[in-house]
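About this split. The held-out portion is used to measure sequence recovery: a designer receives only the structure tokens and must propose an amino acid at every position. Recovery is the fraction of positions where the proposal matches the reference. Here is one held-out target exactly as it appears in the evaluation file.
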């Protein structure tokens, strides 16, 4: 009888892709994948450990699953992902409920870990993350009309607050041929939207081709029949080339949307973060994007409460947000992470002050977002239908301005029955918080 395996996948889309790779490996090896934890013999928890809240979420999930081991038929627990890689043997030492731990560079050994857990054995594996291969075979867990596509792994940027280089290794790109081959397979499955992800997508190709090649990759992907939207995530402003901006502006398949995490605008804070941008270069890039790509949606994130952030630094950031009026914006409170340079920086900010600054920035962004949404009333948007809410009796979906999982929705009525993944024209009629409402036009 096949061992029944359940999965808990936490964290970012890059982590989700590792989960999908492991699901494929296990299915090919004869394991039975089950959707309900209570039916599993072994549960794998693919964890995140980027900030304190992510670590706590991972620990909470491990303890929840441990209850099944203590009180139900669960035989074993396997912990993978960033928490496993970052803390290695500590996971087993501090959490005796866990049977097996494998690092981010060792997912090829997931079957060995599951068998060991099933048999009540301890197992660990931490291969060199810098030698970890790319895997294209996976079990798609996103809706059939969109998928994440990893174009590179690792990071060399060494921002002082970040543990990713230690967890994921040095930056390394996949070849264009390899990425395009996977994208063709996804298109054959019905995928219409590709979300390109990496720790730094704008650096793509430098390590294997000697120059930035994101523009060439976009051109190659746009030639694939069936792919309608290509979305850029995790871009760095200092590496965003004119040729990539041209692709966003002129390539009809590359959506007019960019995820451009900036982290701050005060030069002293950016310097302590070891960011390569400064206020002048950031402002210049935003101006260039909006001039050359009219109507572009810029998503960004900022960190408040970084060590040494003065009231002057914070006021500069708040004023910048009010002035630029980003279409999409998220804020994080600085998380003090051990084994990062920022951990030992002087002038750490009290937690209450971090929270107050976070609340102020998010309140300002809610106001901006509402005003920007109101400008959309009366306009017609191309919307990817994602489903039907039976309770509300209304369809919902996303426009090019909304990335899956992180941005808002558009709710709309329709004169006919729609399929998930269908593209429709929707006239916006009203705004509800971060979301839009409207009606699909007859076609």
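Reference sequence for scoring:
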């Amino acid at each position: 009888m096949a061992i029944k395996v359940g999965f808990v996948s936490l964290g970012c889309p890059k982590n989700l892709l590792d989960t999908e790779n492991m699901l494929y490996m296990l299915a090919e090896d004869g394991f039975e994948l089950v959707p309900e934890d209570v039916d599993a013999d072994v549960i794998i928890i693919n964890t995140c450990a980027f900030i304190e809240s992510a670590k706590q979420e991972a620990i909470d999930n491990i303890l929840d699953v441990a209850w099944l081991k203590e009180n139900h038929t669960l035989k074993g627990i396997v912990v993978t992902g960033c928490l496993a890689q970052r803390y290695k043997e500590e996971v087993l030492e501090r959490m005796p409920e866990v049977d097996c731990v494998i690092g981010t560079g060792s997912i090829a050994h997931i079957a060995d870990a599951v068998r060991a857990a099933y048999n009540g054995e301890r197992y660990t594996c931490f291969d060199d993350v810098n030698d970890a291969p790319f895997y294209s075979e996976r079990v798609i867990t996103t809706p059939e009309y969109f998928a994440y596509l990893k174009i590179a792994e690792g990071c060399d940027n060494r921002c002082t607050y970040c543990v990713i280089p230690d967890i994921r290794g040095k930056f390394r790109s996949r070849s264009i041929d390899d990425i395009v081959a996977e994208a063709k397979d996804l298109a054959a499955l019905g995928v219409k939207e590709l979300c390109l992800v990496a720790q730094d997508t704008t650096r793509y190709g430098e390590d294997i081709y000697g120059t930035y090649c994101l523009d060439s990759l976009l051109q190659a992907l746009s030639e694939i029949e069936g792919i309608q939207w290509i979305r850029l995530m995790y871009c760095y402003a200092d590496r965003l080339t004119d040729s990539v901006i041209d692709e966003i502006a002129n390539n009809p398949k590359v959506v007019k949307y960019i995820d451009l995490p900036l982290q701050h605008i005060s030069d002293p804070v950016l310097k302590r973060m070891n960011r390569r941008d400064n206020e002048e270069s950031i402002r210049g890039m935003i101006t260039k994007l909006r001039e050359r790509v009219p109507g572009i949606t810029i998503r960004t994130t900022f960190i408040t409460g970084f060590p040494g952030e003065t009231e002057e630094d914070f006021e500069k950031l708040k004023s910048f947000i009010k002035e630029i009026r980003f279409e999409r914006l998220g804020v994080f409170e600085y998380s003090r992470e051990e084994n990062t340079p920022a951990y030992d920086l002087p002038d750490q900010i009290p937690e209450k002050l971090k929270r107050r600054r976070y609340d102020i920035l998010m309140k300002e962004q809610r106001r901006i977002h509402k005003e920007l949404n109101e400008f959309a009333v009366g306009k017609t948007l191309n919307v990817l239908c994602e489903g039907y809410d039976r309770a509300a009796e209304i369809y919902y979906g996303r426009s090019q301005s909304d990335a899956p999982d992180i941005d808002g929705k558009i709710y709309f009525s329709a004169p006919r029955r729609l399929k998930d993944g269908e593209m429709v024209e929707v006239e916006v009629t009203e705004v509800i918080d971060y979301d839009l409402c409207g009606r699909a036009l007859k076609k």
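Annotator remark: The chain has a mean pLDDT of 96.
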